[in-house]
């Protein structure tokens, strides 16, 4: 209750000075911890891009090996994790849950690698949307499917959700998580990925043409050489991933962009990990930065 009162107090006074026990006031900004009546709070910040859903070639957001022939093919087909945070706009494309593939369902793509896997939005009678995860064959037809529509997870528009797919050769199990809850899993060998340099697309899918563009926001994208999540977990959007030797690609998406020289319609996204080529976003993407006040333990 004290924390609630404190937050309200912050909102009301705006830029007025805070004092406690006659000590010099401390500014409130991300990373600073202050004490007010024995209630501890800390600042946090989320910065992220929002995509309009525009379906032009310029609006694509993707990773590919570029001048390197090994970035994406350096991943083992048996050990991997793909994860990201998404916030789905109310006007995003929601696919037909009865259609077998992302191409025919028409739902907005969250992430995909053609002929390997696809993650996209589908209808859910108990929620604003659900997420479908397909393992694809060489014709981009699903040979294995997991989806969240029958799970206890009810996803809402304009709310952040953490999505992760992973597999480990240690237990031979492929897993699909939303907000750290295990949606489905399988020990079938069909979930082993082929090893190649197929593009990693984030906000659209390619099926002979660009389609099913995503409308909404992305944050904290990471691709790893290992199974990061052998069991259920609690994702924390305010904690930055630590880069290690198992990080192929990490994009914190904190608006750390570098314009091309000469300036073009695109900016480079800051990249962490082993991935060597650049990743770009069209420079009309809308960036949001929000500060939060969080309780400490």
TrEMBL record:
Gene Ontology molecular function, alphabetical: hydrolase activity, hydrolyzing O-glycosyl compounds
Family annotation (InterPro entries): ConA-like_dom_sf
Record-level GO BP terms: carbohydrate metabolic process
SUPFAM superfamilies xref list: Concanavalin A-like lectins/glucanases
Pfam families membership: Laminin_G_3
Gene3D superfamilies assigned to the protein according to its UniProt record, in alphabetical order: 2.60.120.200
Record's protein name: LamG-like jellyroll fold domain-containing protein
Organism: Pseudalgibacter alginicilyticus
Origin organism lineage: Bacteria, Pseudomonadati, Bacteroidota, Flavobacteriia, Flavobacteriales
């Amino acid at each position: 209750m004290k924390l609630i009162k404190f937050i309200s107090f912050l909102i009301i006074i705006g830029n007025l000075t805070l004092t406690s026990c006659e000590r010099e006031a401390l500014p409130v900004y991300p990373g600073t911890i202050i004490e007010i009546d024995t209630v501890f709070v800390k600042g946090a910040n989320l910065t992220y891009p929002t995509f309009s859903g525009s379906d032009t070639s310029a609006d694509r957001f993707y990773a590919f090996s570029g001048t390197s022939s090994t970035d994406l093919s350096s991943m083992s087909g048996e050990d991997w994790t793909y994860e990201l945070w998404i916030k789905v706009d109310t006007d995003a494309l929601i696919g037909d849950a009865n259609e077998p593939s992302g191409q025919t369902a028409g739902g907005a793509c969250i992430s995909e690698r053609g002929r390997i896997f696809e993650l996209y939005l589908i209808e859910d009678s108990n929620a604003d949307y659900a997420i479908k995860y397909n393992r694809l064959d060489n014709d981009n037809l699903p040979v294995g499917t997991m989806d969240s529509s029958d799970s206890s997870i009810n996803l809402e528009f304009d709310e952040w959700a953490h999505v992760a797919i992973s597999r480990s050769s240690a237990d031979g199990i492929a897993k699909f998580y939303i907000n750290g809850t295990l949606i489905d899993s399988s020990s079938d060998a069909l979930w082993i990925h082929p090893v190649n340099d197929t593009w990693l697309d984030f906000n659209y899918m390619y099926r002979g043409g660009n389609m099913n563009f995503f409308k909404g926001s992305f944050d904290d994208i990471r691709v790893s050489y290992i199974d990061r999540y052998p069991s259920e977990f609690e994702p924390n959007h305010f904690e930055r991933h630590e880069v290690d030797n198992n990080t192929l690609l990490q994009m914190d998406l904190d608006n750390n962009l570098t314009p091309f020289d000469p300036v073009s319609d695109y900016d480079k996204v800051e990249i962490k990990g082993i991935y060597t080529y650049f990743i770009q976003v069209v420079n009309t993407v809308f960036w949001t930065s929000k500060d939060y006040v969080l309780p400490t333990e």
